[in-house]
Amino acid sequence: MLMGMEIALRSTVVLAIAIAVTMLMARGRANVRLFILRAGILAAFGTLIVSAFAPQISVPLLPADGTAPHFSRIALPSATRSEANTTRSSNSLRRTEKVSSSLSPTAALVGIWLFGVAIGLAWLGVGFRRIVGVIKNAHPAADELPARIRDILPPGLRILISEEMVTPFVTMISGSAIVLPRRLIDEATEEELLGVVAHESAHWRHRDPLWSLGMRVLQVLFWFHPLLWVAAALHRGLCEEACDAAAARDIGDRTGYARTLARLALLFASSPRFEPDTALFGSPEILRRLRRLENGKLESPVSGRHRAIGIAGVLVVVAAAGILTIGRVSGQEAPVNAQDETSKEEQLRRGLLGDPQVAKAHEELLAEIQPDGTSLIPNAADRILALLDQADSNPEGNARASAALVAMIEFGGRLDRPELFLPRVRRLLAAESEIVRAAAVAALPYAGGDGSDVQRLAQLVDDPSDLVRMRLAMATIQCGGDATVPPAETVILKLLSEDGLVAYASIAALSTRPISPGIEEALVQLSHDPMAVGEVAFLYQNAPEVSLPLTKRMLEVWRDESLAPQARPAAALALATHPAPAGLRPAVASVLVEAYDSDSMEDFRSNLIAGLGFQGTDEAREKLWEILRSDEDDRLRERAYYGLVDMGEDFDTVIAEFRRGMGSQRLSPRGN
């Protein structure tokens, strides 16, 4: 079962990447975006389906806890409760496979899945029967359509007329056919019928009915997967956009086709009834489709350049699938001597459970004290205490003691006699084994460590092990240390003065915490390290209040084009999260305006608009009015509306300006 969870996670990441790439190319051609999305769907769910039948393989490249080498602000290399819970979940799932009870959680999950599949199949069957009935009752168009329309039909495609359907659609059931409603034949002009037939013919050429059926089947089998429903909705919209573009190109009149789309959408909007996925006017995003036509977003047959873009996007998705598939998929552990093949830096990034011996001991411990993956055995605390006493006996004893400390973080208050743990953890702060000391530092807050332990942690600030020092700042804060005064301030200042991962981990420990002027100055100096500037910017975003030195530094980062590409956007977003100190608000507003107009910040414009509202300067006010009066996305104009109201602009004037555009009905008069 663990293998299945790993593959499901990897497939989910692949699908998420495909969706993200497709959305980030929002201004690109629909057929290229559709190509990338379909490749991602096939890669993601093809992996899941093939894995059910393919033999297991073992590639012990990843550490025993299944985590890849990493270091980021979110996934810090410390044995925190979240790290322990992640590994505990994986190991519990592996042990659940061994439970033979008919009432096991696995059997319950399978039952729920089968129930969902049954509902989905019934839903699919009803739809299929409905379409078959419509086709059976429809009759050939014969001479009811002008010859010009019959002439544009591709070979093998016929036209049927239905008294039942509301909107036209194309089907590949019982032969290929375009089904047109009787009302459309009676009320539409020849030009409008020409546009409808061209659109549905494009669906047929693109084999959209088959793709739609495939998506429906996937939704039935993987009904529980939220990203699949997102992908299916995106797929439907892209199919419609691609066919709009093809139809407009085929009839040679983009404006005329847009009028057809708008008029017929209004004509049929008053009769909501059953519609297949390829119904021309079934999309709730008809206005967006019209906008794309008006803006000239038409797909020509895929050129070499666009084919290259599409192939590159597919390669990104496939590469993600390949990278995420490498690893332990058979549940076998990495060999004990794998640490010899792992660099010290990778060991630090992976965290405590990146050590193969500790990971193995941790899994064995969980199998013993939590055999069903849910409940702890009555003497779980005794077993953990016994393992803590094995520290410094031998390498295996150190691994078992470290695993026990991770389990303490994991189970917290669920262990009885908590008063017995704190003395042992304090003693292990002086253990000979560096991994035991590191685990003890991480576990101290969860064993009941308090302000009196801050001084004990301060004595480890010169510990020779990076693995230990990387956890000191977080443990100091969690034990109640105040980063504005000694000894916690002294410890953190010393850690921030170091190079590399120790300093980076210490920055993250300060998130949302008040800090002293001395620490602020240290952060300013550390932000000159290209690898640390992003961490400092994130700290600025989450600070309870912002300071003059850090704000000035964020302004400098934005203006320094020699920094890494991600540094400047991080600084701009940091500046957009708070009202700046009074004397710097004009400078911050200028940076936010510049960032808003920058192509590199296009995806973050909503955040930047909020930041302009915080600053309250004349330049910020002028920019918000400019956005409100522009043809930008309605969501951006809405944010500008709220920003202007919060800045004290006349509410009636602002709302009147907004209502000249679209989407005004969903506004709430927050500032009234």
Percent helix:
55-70%
Cα-to-Cα separation, first versus last residue: 56 Å
Strands of the biggest beta sheet: in what spatial order? 1-2-4-3
What is the tally of beta strands?
A: 4
What is the mean pLDDT? 77
Our Rg estimate from Cα atoms comes to 31 Å
Strand content: under 5%
Biggest sheet descriptor? 4 strands, mixed
Low-confidence stretches: 55-103, 270-274, 278-287, 297-303, 325-344, 663-668
Instruction: Characterize the quaternary organization of these chains.
Output: single chain
Provide the structure class.
mainly alpha
Number of helices: 32
Overall geometry comes to: flat
Description:
The chain is mostly helical and 672 residues long. It is 60% helix and 2% strand. It has 32 helices and four strands. The chain has helices at residues 2-24, 30-51, 81-96, 105-137, 147-151, 182-187, 190-205, 208-221, 226-251, 254-268, 286-294, 304-325, 344-350, 356-369, 380-388, 395-411, 421-428, 434-443, 454-458, 466-469, 472-478, 488-496, 501-509, 517-526, 533-542, 548-559, 567-575, 585-596, 605-615, 618-628, 634-646, 651-658, and strands at residues 139-140, 158-162, 169-171, 177-181. Strands 1-2-4-3 form a four-stranded mixed beta sheet, sandwiched between helices. A hairpin with a 5-residue loop joins strand 3 (169-171) and strand 4 (177-181). The longest helix is centred in the N-terminal third of the chain and has 33 residues, at 105-137. It is flat. The model is unreliable at 55-103, 270-274, 278-287, 297-303, 325-344 and 663-668 (pLDDT under 50).
